[in-house]
Protein backbone atom coordinates (compact mmCIF):
# COMPACT_ATOMS: atom_id res chain seq x y z
CA UNK A 1 0.00 0.00 0.00
CA UNK A 2 1.17 3.49 -0.83
CA UNK A 3 1.70 5.57 2.23
CA UNK A 4 1.80 9.32 2.28
CA UNK A 5 2.39 10.70 5.73
CA UNK A 6 2.30 14.24 7.01
CA UNK A 7 4.19 15.40 10.06
CA UNK A 8 1.25 16.82 11.99
CA UNK A 9 -2.52 16.35 11.93
CA UNK A 10 -3.15 19.61 13.79
CA UNK A 11 -0.98 22.68 14.12
CA UNK A 12 -1.57 26.05 15.75
CA UNK A 13 0.78 28.90 14.93
CA UNK A 14 0.91 32.63 15.51
CA UNK A 15 0.79 35.29 12.83
CA UNK A 16 4.27 35.97 11.50
CA UNK A 17 5.75 32.62 12.45
CA UNK A 18 7.62 30.51 9.95
CA UNK A 19 5.81 27.21 9.49
CA UNK A 20 7.09 23.95 8.05
CA UNK A 21 4.75 21.21 6.88
CA UNK A 22 6.45 17.94 6.04
CA UNK A 23 5.29 15.18 3.75
CA UNK A 24 6.89 11.80 3.17
CA UNK A 25 5.91 9.07 0.71
CA UNK A 26 7.26 5.53 0.70
CA UNK A 27 6.57 4.42 -2.88
CA UNK A 28 9.42 6.08 -4.73
CA UNK A 29 7.03 8.40 -6.56
CA UNK A 30 8.62 11.12 -8.63
CA UNK A 31 5.76 13.60 -8.43
CA UNK A 32 4.63 15.27 -5.25
CA UNK A 33 2.01 17.94 -4.62
CA UNK A 34 0.76 20.35 -1.98
CA UNK A 35 -2.89 21.43 -1.91
CA UNK A 36 -5.00 23.44 0.43
CA UNK A 37 -8.60 22.46 1.04
CA UNK A 38 -11.17 25.04 2.07
CA UNK A 39 -14.94 24.60 2.44
CA UNK A 40 -16.75 25.39 -0.79
CA UNK A 41 -13.50 25.85 -2.71
CA UNK A 42 -12.39 22.25 -3.08
CA UNK A 43 -8.70 21.50 -3.46
CA UNK A 44 -6.39 24.13 -4.83
CA UNK A 45 -2.85 23.37 -5.91
CA UNK A 46 -0.13 25.36 -4.18
CA UNK A 47 3.07 23.82 -5.53
CA UNK A 48 4.20 20.60 -7.11
CA UNK A 49 7.46 18.86 -7.83
CA UNK A 50 8.32 16.48 -10.65
CA UNK A 51 11.60 15.40 -9.18
CA UNK A 52 14.20 16.17 -6.57
CA UNK A 53 15.12 19.85 -6.43
CA UNK A 54 12.45 20.66 -9.01
CA UNK A 55 9.39 22.72 -8.20
CA UNK A 56 6.60 24.39 -10.07
CA UNK A 57 4.03 26.91 -8.91
CA UNK A 58 0.46 25.81 -8.78
CA UNK A 59 -2.64 27.97 -8.75
CA UNK A 60 -2.11 29.73 -5.42
CA UNK A 61 1.63 29.88 -4.59
CA UNK A 62 1.65 33.31 -2.98
CA UNK A 63 2.88 33.22 0.60
CA UNK A 64 4.28 29.70 0.26
CA UNK A 65 7.51 28.07 -0.77
CA UNK A 66 8.58 24.44 -1.03
CA UNK A 67 11.64 22.29 -0.71
CA UNK A 68 12.43 18.88 -2.15
CA UNK A 69 15.92 17.77 -1.25
CA UNK A 70 15.12 14.04 -1.23
CA UNK A 71 12.80 12.10 -3.46
CA UNK A 72 10.56 10.89 -0.65
CA UNK A 73 10.14 14.22 1.14
CA UNK A 74 8.34 17.40 0.08
CA UNK A 75 8.12 20.32 2.47
CA UNK A 76 5.75 23.25 2.38
CA UNK A 77 6.97 26.46 4.02
CA UNK A 78 4.91 29.41 5.13
CA UNK A 79 7.54 32.13 5.42
CA UNK A 80 5.38 34.38 7.59
CA UNK A 81 2.08 32.80 8.51
CA UNK A 82 -1.06 34.86 8.20
CA UNK A 83 -4.61 34.21 9.38
CA UNK A 84 -5.81 33.70 5.80
CA UNK A 85 -3.54 30.67 5.61
CA UNK A 86 -5.65 28.88 8.17
CA UNK A 87 -6.70 25.80 6.22
CA UNK A 88 -6.38 22.08 5.71
CA UNK A 89 -3.18 21.21 3.82
CA UNK A 90 -2.99 18.02 1.81
CA UNK A 91 0.08 16.39 0.38
CA UNK A 92 -0.09 13.92 -2.50
CA UNK A 93 2.24 11.83 -4.60
CA UNK A 94 2.06 10.08 -7.95
CA UNK A 95 4.27 7.98 -10.18
CA UNK A 96 5.88 9.74 -13.12
CA UNK A 97 4.22 9.35 -16.51
CA UNK A 98 0.84 10.87 -16.05
CA UNK A 99 -1.63 8.02 -16.23
CA UNK A 100 -1.50 6.97 -12.65
CA UNK A 101 -3.65 7.75 -9.68
CA UNK A 102 -2.64 10.21 -7.05
CA UNK A 103 -2.36 9.24 -3.39
CA UNK A 104 -3.10 11.64 -0.58
CA UNK A 105 -1.85 12.06 2.94
CA UNK A 106 -4.16 12.53 5.93
CA UNK A 107 -3.84 16.30 5.91
CA UNK A 108 -2.60 18.92 8.36
CA UNK A 109 -5.18 21.29 9.79
CA UNK A 110 -3.30 24.52 10.36
CA UNK A 111 -4.74 27.33 12.44
CA UNK A 112 -2.97 30.68 12.42
CA UNK A 113 -4.00 32.98 15.27
CA UNK B 1 -8.56 26.91 -18.93
CA UNK B 2 -9.57 23.50 -17.74
CA UNK B 3 -12.24 23.35 -15.09
CA UNK B 4 -14.46 20.88 -13.31
CA UNK B 5 -17.99 21.64 -12.22
CA UNK B 6 -19.88 19.71 -9.58
CA UNK B 7 -23.50 20.68 -9.69
CA UNK B 8 -24.53 20.16 -6.10
CA UNK B 9 -22.85 21.61 -3.05
CA UNK B 10 -24.81 19.57 -0.51
CA UNK B 11 -27.07 16.58 -1.08
CA UNK B 12 -29.23 15.10 1.65
CA UNK B 13 -30.73 11.65 1.18
CA UNK B 14 -32.41 9.01 3.26
CA UNK B 15 -30.92 5.55 3.48
CA UNK B 16 -31.77 3.30 0.52
CA UNK B 17 -32.32 6.28 -1.78
CA UNK B 18 -30.49 6.33 -5.09
CA UNK B 19 -27.64 8.74 -5.62
CA UNK B 20 -26.39 10.60 -8.64
CA UNK B 21 -23.74 13.31 -8.30
CA UNK B 22 -23.05 15.38 -11.37
CA UNK B 23 -19.62 16.24 -12.73
CA UNK B 24 -18.83 18.13 -15.90
CA UNK B 25 -15.47 19.23 -17.16
CA UNK B 26 -14.16 21.58 -19.77
CA UNK B 27 -11.21 20.35 -21.78
CA UNK B 28 -11.00 19.65 -25.49
CA UNK B 29 -8.65 16.69 -25.41
CA UNK B 30 -8.56 13.22 -23.94
CA UNK B 31 -8.79 13.04 -20.18
CA UNK B 32 -8.43 10.73 -17.23
CA UNK B 33 -11.29 11.05 -14.77
CA UNK B 34 -11.47 10.36 -11.06
CA UNK B 35 -13.85 10.43 -8.16
CA UNK B 36 -12.33 10.79 -4.72
CA UNK B 37 -14.15 10.49 -1.41
CA UNK B 38 -13.32 12.01 1.96
CA UNK B 39 -15.10 10.46 4.94
CA UNK B 40 -15.37 12.63 8.05
CA UNK B 41 -11.95 12.96 9.65
CA UNK B 42 -10.26 10.77 7.07
CA UNK B 43 -7.97 11.40 4.14
CA UNK B 44 -8.99 11.59 0.51
CA UNK B 45 -9.17 8.20 -1.12
CA UNK B 46 -9.85 7.06 -4.64
CA UNK B 47 -13.38 5.84 -5.27
CA UNK B 48 -12.99 5.03 -8.94
CA UNK B 49 -11.17 6.12 -12.08
CA UNK B 50 -11.58 6.08 -15.82
CA UNK B 51 -8.60 6.03 -18.16
CA UNK B 52 -9.94 4.24 -21.25
CA UNK B 53 -12.18 1.37 -22.36
CA UNK B 54 -15.66 0.72 -21.01
CA UNK B 55 -17.11 4.11 -20.10
CA UNK B 56 -19.06 2.58 -17.23
CA UNK B 57 -16.62 2.06 -14.39
CA UNK B 58 -17.21 0.41 -11.07
CA UNK B 59 -15.50 1.47 -7.91
CA UNK B 60 -15.41 0.52 -4.28
CA UNK B 61 -18.45 0.24 -2.02
CA UNK B 62 -20.96 -0.19 -4.83
CA UNK B 63 -20.27 3.12 -6.57
CA UNK B 64 -20.11 3.45 -10.32
CA UNK B 65 -19.62 6.29 -12.78
CA UNK B 66 -20.35 6.74 -16.46
CA UNK B 67 -18.17 8.74 -18.80
CA UNK B 68 -20.22 10.41 -21.52
CA UNK B 69 -17.73 12.02 -23.85
CA UNK B 70 -20.29 14.00 -25.83
CA UNK B 71 -21.55 15.63 -22.65
CA UNK B 72 -18.13 16.05 -21.00
CA UNK B 73 -19.63 14.35 -17.99
CA UNK B 74 -18.59 11.76 -15.44
CA UNK B 75 -21.50 11.35 -13.05
CA UNK B 76 -21.22 9.23 -9.94
CA UNK B 77 -24.05 6.83 -9.03
CA UNK B 78 -25.07 4.41 -6.35
CA UNK B 79 -28.40 2.55 -6.39
CA UNK B 80 -28.94 2.53 -2.64
CA UNK B 81 -26.97 4.72 -0.23
CA UNK B 82 -26.13 3.88 3.35
CA UNK B 83 -25.51 6.11 6.33
CA UNK B 84 -21.81 5.23 6.03
CA UNK B 85 -21.70 6.93 2.62
CA UNK B 86 -21.92 10.29 4.38
CA UNK B 87 -18.82 12.05 3.07
CA UNK B 88 -17.57 14.69 0.68
CA UNK B 89 -17.09 13.62 -2.92
CA UNK B 90 -14.68 15.24 -5.34
CA UNK B 91 -14.55 14.83 -9.09
CA UNK B 92 -11.15 15.37 -10.74
CA UNK B 93 -9.83 15.51 -14.28
CA UNK B 94 -6.36 15.28 -15.81
CA UNK B 95 -5.30 15.53 -19.45
CA UNK B 96 -4.25 12.03 -20.42
CA UNK B 97 -0.59 11.22 -20.72
CA UNK B 98 0.58 14.60 -19.53
CA UNK B 99 2.55 15.55 -16.51
CA UNK B 100 -0.29 17.88 -15.75
CA UNK B 101 -2.07 18.12 -12.50
CA UNK B 102 -5.44 16.97 -11.33
CA UNK B 103 -8.09 19.64 -11.62
CA UNK B 104 -10.63 19.20 -8.84
CA UNK B 105 -14.22 20.23 -8.58
CA UNK B 106 -15.34 22.05 -5.46
CA UNK B 107 -16.83 18.94 -3.94
CA UNK B 108 -20.29 17.70 -3.03
CA UNK B 109 -21.13 16.98 0.55
CA UNK B 110 -23.44 13.99 0.92
CA UNK B 111 -25.43 13.54 4.11
CA UNK B 112 -27.36 10.30 4.47
CA UNK B 113 -30.08 10.21 7.11
CA UNK B 114 -30.51 6.89 8.90
Summarize the structure.
Chain A is mainly β and 113 residues long.
Explain what the structure shows.
Chain A is mainly β and 113 residues long. In chain A, 0% of the residues lie in helices and 53% in strands. In chain A, the strands form 2 sheets. In chain A, strands 2, 4, 5, 6, 9, 10 and 11 form a 7-stranded mixed beta sheet that branches. Chain A is globular. The relative contact order of chain A is 0.34. The model of chain A has no long low-confidence stretch (mean pLDDT 93). In chain B, the strands form 3 sheets. In chain B, strands 2, 5, 6, 10, 11 and 12 form a 6-stranded mixed beta sheet that branches. Chain B has a 4-stranded antiparallel beta sheet with strand order 3-9-8-7, with no helix packed on it. In chain B, β8 (64-68) and β9 (73-78) form a beta hairpin. Chain B is globular and about 40 Å long. The interface between A and B is medium-sized, with 22 and 24 residues.
Task: Name the helicity range of chain B.
Answer: under 10%
Rg of chain A, alpha carbons: 13 Å
H/E topology pattern of chain A = EEEEEEEEEEE
What is the N-to-C succession of helices and strands of chain B?
A: EEEEEEEEEEEE
- Kindly report the average pLDDT value of chain B: 92
Q: Biggest sheet of chain B, in brief? A: 6 strands, mixed
What is the approximate shape of chain B?
Answer: globular
Class of secondary structure makeup of chain A: mainly beta
Give the overall silhouette of chain A.
globular
Annotate the secondary structure layout.
The complex is a heterodimer of chains A (113) and B (114).
Chain A: E1 4-6, E2 10-13, E3 19-25, E4 31-38, E5 42-49, E6 56-57, E7 64-70, E8 73-78, E9 87-94, E10 103-104, E11 108-112
Parallel strand pairs in A: 2-11
Antiparallel strand pairs in A: 1-3, 3-8, 4-5, 4-9, 5-6, 7-8, 9-10, 9-11
Chain B: E1 3-6, E2 10-14, E3 19-21, E4 23-26, E5 31-38, E6 45-50, E7 56-58, E8 64-68, E9 73-78, E10 87-95, E11 103-104, E12 108-113
Parallel strand pairs in B: 2-12
Antiparallel strand pairs in B: 1-4, 3-9, 5-6, 5-10, 7-8, 8-9, 10-11, 10-12
Amino acid sequence: DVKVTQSSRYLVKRTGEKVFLECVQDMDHENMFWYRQDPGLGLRLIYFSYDVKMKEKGDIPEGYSVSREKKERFSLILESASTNQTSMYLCASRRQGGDYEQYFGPGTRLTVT
Amino acid sequence: AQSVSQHNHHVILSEAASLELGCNYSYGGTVNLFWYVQYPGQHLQLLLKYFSGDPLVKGIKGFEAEFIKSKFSFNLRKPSVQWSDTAEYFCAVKPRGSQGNLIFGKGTKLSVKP
